[in-house]
Every structure is written in C-alpha cells, then in structure tokens.
Amino acid sequence: MLNISIVIYTLDEKVLSSAMRSLIVSSKKLPPNLSIKKITLLDNGNNKKKLLSFIEKFTAFSLNIQYYSAGKNLGYGQAHNIAIDSSDTIYHLILNPDVIISPECLRIGLNYLEENNEVVVVSPSATDGENNIQYLAKSYPSLLVLLVRALNIRYLEKMFEEKVYNYELKEVIHNKKTAEVKIISGCFMLCKTKALHFVGGFDGRYFLYFEDFSLSIELQKIGKIIYLPDMKIIHFGGNTSRKGIKHICMFVSSMIKFFNRYGWKIF
C-alpha cells in the first residue's frame, strides 16, 4: 500500500483541491494491494481551521486524510519526516501541494517499483502550468550552474548553455528516456518506505532547499534512482530568484551546507 505526505505553508485551497482530485483519479487505477492507505497534510503555517474544513470536503471520496501540525514551521524536510517516520506501508510518496498527477501516474510508478528490486525511488516527467518542460532529474550540480540558474539572466544562460544542458539532463528528458539519475526534485518522490527509513528520511540540517538533493544522494547509496517519463505530472512551482531576498538567503545557506558535505564542484 501507499502513504502520501504533503507539506503546506501557504494554503491555496484551489491548487490543493486540484492536487487531491488528481490523486483520487489516479488511485482508481490501482489494484487493492497498491491503494492509498493514508494522506497526511503537514501544516507548517497557520492553516489548521482551513485545512480541517478542507479535509471534511474530501471525506466522501473514501480517502483517509489526516492533519498534523507541530505548531511551528519545521521546514520542508523535517515536516515530511513526521509522516515518513510513522509510515508503515511499502511505498511512500513525497508530494508538493502544487502538483497535479496524471491518471496513470501512480499505477505506472508503483508497478515499476514492484518489478525492480534494485530501484528505491522514481521521478516523473513534468511540465508547468503553461506546458513548459520542467527538469526534475539532474546530475550533480556545480556552483557555476546553480548561480546561472538562480540569477535567471538570459546572457549568462546562453554563455553556459552546455553546462546547464548537461546538469538538467536535457538529452534524457527531451528523448523521454527511462534512465538512472543522481538527483531528483522533492516535489514528487515515489519511494520504497524501507529505503527512506534506512537513510533516516530528510536531513534536518536543511530548512528549505537542497534537502531533496541530499536525500537523493543518500538513497543512491542503497539503490537506484530512476527517471520514469511515463509517469507524468504538472508542477506549478516557481523560480527561487523570483521569491525575494529571504528565499535567496535560504537557498545560498542550504547550498553551502550541501557542498560542504558532498563536495564542492565549481564548474
């Protein structure tokens, strides 16, 4: 069976409703042994009243939706760890509230994990709300590439186009190849729960940003990470550089922690 955790800071009920409805549709394609057991909504903001009301609206869909709040913002990874630590199903989906999954997404991903013992997590192909490709699977980052992408300056992107191309695995993604990769996005990580438990879930030293990079590397030590393009999602996530100075500072702080632990790559 499958447990799902969704961390929420700023609640957008319309977006979250779309995500939940896509889960309902996709769950109907699953056999009983792979069905959704529980969805945990982890509240990192002050959304209790609205989220409890939101959950009430979905009780008719036979989904077991639970609410959890520590009463403070734990950070992205630490909040997910609350659900991961108590997860007792074979599979666990780490999911953003701004993700809509395709009807066949869960069936394809779970079947792949069932049939491939060496695989510990799968990542989907993704587009944004305007049907632009998102590059969720990546190679190990360099400082140069991260800065070029964060600054979002066309001149720099053109100058270092090849390095960004290789980092974002564009050949793999454009050709829709199933492939083993090094790093995947935390907006959608369909995992084997025992692998998450073995590595201890997300590293609590990251409050926001790079916790998915770190988890990817830890999971890769015990199994394969697979980019699975037949799994499809729409992800409405935004660019860090457009979120203001606070987010940029958190990004840089987490980046330094990541490189200090796993090794600096400048170019």
Characterise this structure.
41% of the residues lie in helices and 23% in strands. The chain is α/β, with parallel strands linked by helices. It has a single domain (2-262), classed as Spore Coat Polysaccharide Biosynthesis Protein SpsA, Chain A. β2 (36-43), α2 (48-57) and β3 form a beta-alpha-beta unit.
Properties at a glance:
267 residues, alpha/beta, Spore Coat Polysaccharide Biosynthesis Protein SpsA, Chain A, two-stranded antiparallel sheet
Task: Give a quick rundown of the structure.
It contains 11 helices and 12 strands.
**Number of DSSP-assigned strands:** 12
| CATH homologous superfamily grouping | Spore Coat Polysaccharide Biosynthesis Protein SpsA, Chain A
Separation of the first and last Cα atoms: 43 Å
Please state the second-level CATH architecture.
Answer: Alpha-Beta Complex
Highest-level CATH class: Alpha Beta
Radius of gyration over alpha carbons?
18 Å
Q: Can you summarize the main beta sheet?
A: 10 strands, mixed
Number of domains: 1
**The CATH topology:** Spore Coat Polysaccharide Biosynthesis Protein SpsA, Chain A
Instruction: Enumerate the spans where pLDDT stays under 50 for 5 or more consecutive residues.
Output: none
Order of helices and strands: EHEHEHEEHEEEHHHHEEEHHEH
The secondary structure category is: alpha/beta
- The helical percent reads 40-55%
The percentage of residues in β strands lies in 15-25%
Number of helices: 11
Mean of all residue-level pLDDT scores: 95
Shape: globular
